[in-house]
Amino acid sequence: MWIRHGILLAFSAGFVAGENGLNGWLRYASLPEAQRQQATSIPSVIVALNSTATSPVYVAAQELQAGIEGVLGVKLQVLHEPEITASSLSVLVGTVAAYTSKHGARNISSLIADGYWLSVKAGSVIILGQNERGALYGAFEYLSRISQGNFADVDVVSNPDAPIRWVNQWDNLEGTIERGYAGPSIFFSDGLVVKNLTRVSQYARLLASLGINAIIPNNVNANPNLLTAENIEGLGRIADTMRPYGVQVGISLNFASPERLGGLKTFDPLDIMVVKWWTEKTEALYKRVPDLAGYLVKANSEGQPGPLTYNRTLADAANLFARAVQPFGGIVMFRAFVYNHLADWTVWEADRANAAVEFFKHLDGKFLDNVVVQIKYGPIDFQVREPASPLFANIPLTNTAIELQITQEYLGQQSHLVYIAPLWKEILDFDLKVDGKPSAVRDIVAGRRFNKKLGGYAGVVNVGTNTSWLGSHLAMSNLYAYGRLAWNPKQDAQALLQDWIRLSFGHDRSVLDTITKISMESWPAYENYSGNLGIQTLTDILYTHFGPGPASQDNNGWGQWTRATNTHIGMDRTMSNGTGNAGQYPPEVAKAYDNIETTPDNLVLWFHHVPYTHRLHSGKTVIQHFYDAHYKGAATAQTFAPAWESLRGKVDAQRFDEVLFRLRYQAGHSIVWRDSICSFYHNLSGIPDEAKRVGNHPWRIQAEAMALTGFKPTGVTPPEAASNFTAVATVKNGTGEAVATLNFPDGTYDIAIAYYDIVGGRAHYGAFINEDPLLEWYGDLEDRLGHAFSEKLDGHSATRVTITNVGIKKGDVLKIIGLANGNETASLDYVAFSRRELLIRKSLRTYSLFITT
Ligand code: GCW
C-alpha cells in the first residue's frame, strides 16, 4: 500500500495558474522535485474519526486530501469510521476521545483544550486533537510541514499558549470597514448579513489554519441594528459557516441598544428593564447561535455610549453582559481603550497615555470571572513605536488580553510594506517586572503570571472582498504571524515569516531571501521615515491616518501630543516633572523610564521633553537623528521594489505585478514622508541638517519654477507636504502645461515626477522630453491602492511616478501636461533627477546619503 515517490503521478513543480492570493498560505502548491524526493513514503488513505460533514474533523480530512493532492500529486481516499479501522498506512485524524474508544488509550494526557498530538512515523500519520478543533489544527500543522518539504518523523504535543485567540473585524452593517484597506465587507452589506457566505467560509479556513478560535465580525463602533431578528438570523448563518472550521462567532455591542433599538428610556446598566432587555436578547442570540463566543464592548470611548453616563462603573457594564452570557459559557471582552478625546490640551498632565490605568486600576477585582479586559499593546493607539501598556501590570486580579492590529492603520495602510511581528514581539517579550518578578507581557495575557483562567489575544484584521484579503499580498505575513504568535508567542518573527514565504511563494531560495530581507527591514524603515525616538507615527491624526501631518498631533483633544515647540519636543511623562505616566509601571521599569539616562533612545521622546539639541545615547542630537533616520528609512524603502523586481519569473504574474506596484508606490511615498517631516522640524527648529540635505534639492525642478500655462501655484495642507511649500494645480476640469529647459550634465537619469492623486476623478498626465513622449499616466491610485484616500492636496495624496534610464542632454526641454478629471485637479510638485551611473556605483550606505532628490 505504500506509494513510493518514484511512482507518484508526474506533475510539474511550479505555480498554481492564475494566483490571486485567495488561498493565502494554504495554496498546497506542488513541491519541487528535489523536495518531493524527501517523501520516501506517504500514506495511502485518510481515516477521519467523524463522518458529520460539518465537524472540524471531517473538514480536516477534506483538507488533508486536498493538501496531499496539491503538494504530492496523489489523491487519497477519505474513509470514515466505522467503515474501516485504522491501519499503520493511514493519515488518521480525530479527537483523543474518539480514538480511545476505538483503539484504546494513548498517553497524551498533557493535551489541553484546542491542543493536538501529531505523530509522523515512516509516513504513517496520527493527528489527535483534545477536541475537534485541535484535530483540525493538527491537520493544518501536518500540511504546513509537507508543503514546506518537511517529511521528517515527529512526535509532538502542541498546546495553545492562551485560550483566547480571536480576531476582530471592524465591519459596519452597511458594508464599509472602518480602517479596512481591501474593499467592502465579506460579512455585511446594506444593513444585513450578505447572502453568499463563500468568502466567510474561506476566511474561516485561513483562520483555523492558524489556530484562531473566534471572530467578532462587526465593528466595535457597533450598530444596534445588529440585534434585530433578521440580523440575529444572519449571524446564525455566519456562525454555521464558520463552525466547521472551529471558529466561533461573537459580536460587538452598542451599549445604548436598549434605548436605540429596544425603545427603552434608558440604557443604565443597573436598570432592571435594561438588564431584562439584555438577558432576553442574549437568550435569543444563543437560541440561534448556541456556541456564541461572547461579546466585545467598547464603551465610553470616542463618543460611544457607556455606563459613565449613569455614574456606573465600567465593571458594572462588563458584569451586566458577563451575567447574561455566563449560563451559556460565553465571555465578555471589555476594551480598555477608554479615554477622553475632548481633553484640554493646554493641561500638561492630561495625558491620554494615563487613561487606561486611571479607568481600570481601581476596578481590579470587581470584574466577574468571564470578563476579559482587552488592552491595546501600547498606551495610545497602535503607533509605530510605543512602550507596552502599563495596564498589563496594574490589574493582576483581572483576566487580560492584548489587542494587536493586523490592519495597518498607522503603518501605511497596506500601501507600505511593514512586517509587524517584530514590533509585537518586542511588546510580548517585554518584562514589566511586577513585584520584582519576571512578568513578560505574554505571560500576563496567557494568564500564567497572575494565575488567571482566561486571557489571550485579539487581532484587528479587517480583511475585505479583495482576493488578496488585506489589499496587499505581502501584508498577509502579518495575519499569519499574528495567529502563530497567539498560539505560541515565543516563536521567532523571522522564522514565522519564512514559513509564510515558503507556503505563499514557494521554495526558490532567492524568493525566500528577498522577501525575508525586505520584510525584516520594513518596520525599522517605516519607523525611520514616519516617526522615530518614540514620537509616534507623525501622520495626520485628524484625517485618514495615512500620510505625514506632524502638526496635527498637537493642540487638540485627541491626546497624541508631541508638545513640539521651536526649541523642544517630546512628552514629559516623568514622575517628578511630567504627567506621571512613567510611574504607572512597576518600580524597576518606572525608574528606567523616568530617567532620561536609562530610557532607550527609541522611546526618549515618548517619556521626555527635550531640546532638539539634546544628545542621544547614540551621540547624535535629536534633530540630526530625525534628519538622518528619515533619509535612511526612505533610502531603505527605495531598495524594496528593485529587490522584488529581481524575482521576476520566480513569482506568478498577478501577485508579482501587484506587489511591484505597491513597492514602487511606497518608494515614492516614503520620500514624501521623509521630506515632509524633515522640512517640518527644520522649519520649526531652524536647525540646519549637518549633511545639508534638508531643504536643499539641487536635482529638483520645482513645478512653480517651470513655465506654466493653466497650472497655478498653490499651497498644500500641511504646507510641508509640498517641496518648497508650493505645488501647482489646474482648476477643476482645467488643463495645465509646465515646461522647463534642463540644465543638468548629459547622462542617464531616473526621473521622478511628484504630484497629488486625490479622489473624485482620474486626472490624465503626459511627460515629454523635446516633445518625445516619456510617460503617460493617470491619477488613478484610488483604483489600485486600498488606502484611505484624500480629497485634498496633502501628505496622503502626495505621490511620485518614476521613469528609469532616461538619457538627458543639457538644453533638453521637459514638458508635463495635466488634464483634470471630475473633481480631481491635475497637479505637480516637482521633477527630480537622479544620476543612474552614480547610483549604480554607490553602495547602499552612500546611496542613502546621495538620494537627495
Ligand atoms: O485607532 C482608533 C481608530 C478608530 C477605532 C478606534 C478603536 C474602531 O482610529 O477607527 O475605532 O481606534 O480602536 O476603537
UniProtKB/TrEMBL annotation:
Its EC number is 3.2.1.139. Keywords: Carbohydrate metabolism, Glycosidase, Hydrolase, Polysaccharide degradation, Secreted, Signal, Xylan degradation. SUPFAM superfamilies: (Trans)glycosidases, beta-N-acetylhexosaminidase-like domain. Residues 1-18 form the signal peptide. The keyword DNA repair does not apply. The keyword Secreted applies. CDD domains: CBM6-CBM35-CBM36_like. It holds the Pfam family Glyco_hydro_67M. It is an enzyme of class 3 (hydrolase). Residues 24-142 form the Alpha glucuronidase N-terminal domain. GO terms for cellular component: extracellular region. GO terms for biological process: xylan catabolic process. It is found in: Secreted. Residues 150-469 form the Glycosyl hydrolase family 67 catalytic domain. It catalyses: an alpha-D-glucuronoside + H2O = D-glucuronate + an alcohol. InterPro entries: A-glucoronidase_C_sf, GH, Glyco_hydro_67_aGlcAse, Glyco_hydro_67_aGlcAse_N, Glyco_hydro_67_C, Glyco_hydro_67_cat, Hex-like_dom2. Alpha-glucuronidase involved in the hydrolysis of xylan, a major structural heterogeneous polysaccharide found in plant biomass representing the second most abundant polysaccharide in the biosphere, after cellulose. Releases 4-O-methylglucuronic acid from xylan. This is Alpha-glucuronidase.
